[in-house]
Write a structure and sequence with these properties.
This protein has 16 helices and 30 strands. By secondary structure, the chain is of the alpha/beta class.
Length: 684
């Protein structure tokens, strides 16, 4: 399919209540008739005990028959019906009576999962293959989605696994010596180089186990219907379990096109200001997964009620996913009750926006993301010690959240701009990789800089970074810009917050001491104490002997979400430093207004630019003001309309300013209302 043939065609999960068959059929027809929805996946077996015990085989047979009947009855309406296998690893295998139970997943602390089975148990794999064959043979689903419990490290009481005897034996073989769960637990809790090495090896084993199970299930389905597509719902812990997405998806696909539903939503929440952190990983996946894999978004407003999650937020998530280049959506627009279309807000939003979504996806073809790179290393988790029964899962680098709220666009892969690094991601870089980055332009948060100094790179950073003494930290009252900071607006003052009540309990883990190592290091802001004394630098700049430019901020951005980071002076400081690091202007950024998320793309041949803007504040904006680099300025500015057409903004106010152009667009911009602009020298 070419991009001009593309039409937004989401797939809808649907819980089919068997004893209300006619009502369920009518609901699907209503969704098809009134919203144009034509692809559905029936949820089975669910988590309610339907597919457990000695009757499990009969349950799958009945579901296969039901699926076949529903498919047949809806075929004349042009409706496709597939299967959502949910759960997946929590389906109880059918074993001969008296046989030892199948192995369940075991956590790092020895806790045994109540429901989830180990993917390395061959008897579980064989049983899953039989269940799949039963449904495919009887129901003929064109596609099967496997729920995002298709992972190891997130099952009821298990948050990091699987440390069962099967996996311990395989891991011992891989490292060449016998190890126990207790030995690994002690090592993984202590951290260090050997722990990181073993953690990565362990993650690789988890990925291999899940990939092998995928291969077993694929072979089982191929015996019945090799044309059946089998898709992965990417789990939140996909990287903890060995960066499993591509490997599992390709094996599940067999001879069909690989298909993955990327995670990128949250549950029971109508928050807007964490839009960047919610959507970063899907951008990372889009930019790093092998081309040729079909990627669709997890458009899930669970619990599928606008008491908790607005249709406006769902629209925003889908639009950004398509702007990032994803191919479609798994749209959870029905309730999992016997009144699936009780809340009509979601499917009517889809109906109103089909043309908009279609044109948005078509328009981004051939474009590439612009802005600084936010570094994300999927295996950086190996450098975070186990705490309790789990490891800290970080799927969004803190820099993405910071830039997203400050109106600065970013990308997840290498490009023209500088690289933003925080926390343990820097520990996953080899010396060669780190030297290459330090020879270009990098912005390190305090924790990344601390780790870099411990690795011996303080000279290239221009500073030494150490723990800040508690007694000193207790005296700090604010941060002040120095005279070297050239980006604050005239009359804006110099002081910024250091701490607020929301941060006080974790302040000691949030700031580090910076000590310049060279006279030429520029201190852009300083921490001041209650005696009106400058205690230590807060932000420094350095041009090193490799020709690189390095900025260091004293704060651990992952721990710090306070007003010390999110304020107007900091917004301009980070913008200015990012431009200094890259030696050029940002392509575009949102001026002044807080909580305006911006994403930008450019076409390398045509020269056209695309900009997506989202107001993630609860305050409506009367206008959006953008600073656009002169090289991005174009004769025409178009806005994507709700009907999928492009409207020329001939009243947009353009003001040239040195090497930038200020673009002001008037209108009432509500929370999360997408504003997509096309800058071009050619009429659209």
């Amino acid at each position: 399919m070419t991009v001009t043939d593309y039409s937004f065609d989401p797939i809808v999960p649907f819980l089919f209540i068997k004893d209300k068959k006619e009502e369920m059929i009518d609901a699907i027809k209503k969704l098809n008739r009134e919203a144009g929805l034509r692809r559905f996946i029936l949820v089975f077996p669910t988590w309610d005990g339907e597919a457990k015990g000695r009757s499990v085989q009969q349950a799958f047979e009945k579901f296969g028959d039901l699926l076949g009947e529903v498919r047949q009855r809806l075929a004349s309406d042009g409706v496709e019906v597939g299967w959502w296998c949910a759960p997946s690893l929590s389906i109880e295998p059918l074993l001969p009576e008296g046989e030892t139970p199948a192995q369940k997943i075991v956590g790092i602390d020895g806790a045994v999962s109540k429901w989830a089975y180990c993917p390395s148990d061959e008897r579980f794999a064989a049983s899953m293959g039989n269940f799949l064959q039963t449904v495919v043979r009887r129901g003929g689903p064109p596609y099967i989605f496997f729920e995002d419990d298709y992972q190891v490290s997130n099952h009821d009481v298990v948050r990091f696994g699987c440390f069962c005897p099967l996996h311990l034996k395989r891991f011992s073989e891989r490292i060449g010596k016998a190890v126990t769960r207790e030995e690994l637990e002690a090592l993984f809790r202590s951290g260090g180089d050997q722990a990181a090495e073993y953690r990565k090896a362990w993650a690789g084993l988890m990925k291999d186990s899940l990939t092998e199970l995928a291969g077993s299930m694929r072979r089982a389905v191929d015996e019945v219907a090799p044309e059946t597509r089998m898709a992965l719902c990417q789990p939140f812990v996909c990287d903890v379990d060995g960066d499993l997405t591509e490997s599992v998806a390709k094996v599940l696909a067999g001879g069909t096109k690989p298909l993955v539903r990327l995670f990128g939503s949250d549950y029971n929440s109508d928050r807007a200001d964490h839009f960047a952190s919610l959507t970063f990983h899907m951008l990372h996946s889009k930019q790093t997964l092998e081309e040729g894999i079909e990627l669709i978004h997890e458009s899930d407003p669970f619990p599928h009620s606008r008491f908790f999650f607005s249709a406006a937020k769902l629209r925003a998530l889908i639009s950004l996913a398509l702007f990032y280049g994803l191919d479609g959506s798994l749209s959870y627009v029905t309730q999992y009750t016997d009144s699936p279309v009780e809340d009509e807000g979601y499917f009517r939003m889809i109906a109103r926006n089909r043309a908009y979504f279609t044109e948005l996806k078509r328009s981004v073809e051939g474009f590439r993301m612009a802005g600084p790179r936010v570094l994300y290393r999927p295996h950086a988790h190996a450098h975070r010690p186990v705490a309790g029964n789990q490891i800290p899962v970080q799927v969004t680098p803190a820099w993405a959240s910071v830039l997203g709220k400050l109106g600065i666009p970013y990308t997840a892969q290498a490009g023209k701009g500088p690289v933003m690094i925080c926390g343990e991601d820097i520990l996953d870089l080899s010396d060669a990789e780190l030297l290459e980055l330090l020879g270009s332009g990098v912005f390190l948060d305090g924790l990344a800089a601390l780790y870099a100094c411990r690795r011996g790179y303080g000279d290239l950073l221009g500073v030494d970074v150490t723990e800040l003494e508690v007694a000193v930290c207790d005296t700090i009252v604010n941060e002040r810009l120095t005279k070297l900071d050239e980006w604050a607006e005239p009359g804006a003052g110099a002081r910024m917050y250091f701490v607020n009540l929301a941060l006080a309990v974790q302040q000691y883990a949030s700031v580090f001491r910076i000590t310049p190592k060279h006279a030429e290091v520029r201190v852009m802001s300083e921490l001041w104490n209650d005696q009106e004394e400058a205690v230590a630098p807060a932000v420094t700049l350095h041009e090193n002997r490799l020709g690189g430019r390095v900025a260091v901020m004293a704060y651990d951005l992952r721990q710090n979400v306070s007003a010390s980071i999110f304020n107007y002076k900091r917004k301009e400081q980070i913008r200015g430093i990012t431009e200094w690091l890259g030696g050029s202007n940002l392509p575009v950024y949102a001026v002044k207004d807080p909580n305006v998320f911006v994403s930008a793309q450019e076409h390398p041949e045509m020269g056209d630019k695309l900009i997506a803007i989202y107001n993630v504040s609860l305050d409506p904006l009367e206008q959006v003001t953008l600073a656009i680099d002169a090289s991005w300025s174009k004769h025409y500015v178009y806005r994507l309309q709700d009907d999928g057409s492009w409207e020329l903004l001939d009243q947009a106010e353009k003001t040239p300013m040195k090497d930038k152009e200020m673009l002001k667009i008037s209108g009432a911009f509500a929370t999360l209302q997408p504003l997509v602009l096309r800058l071009t020298d050619r009429p659209v």
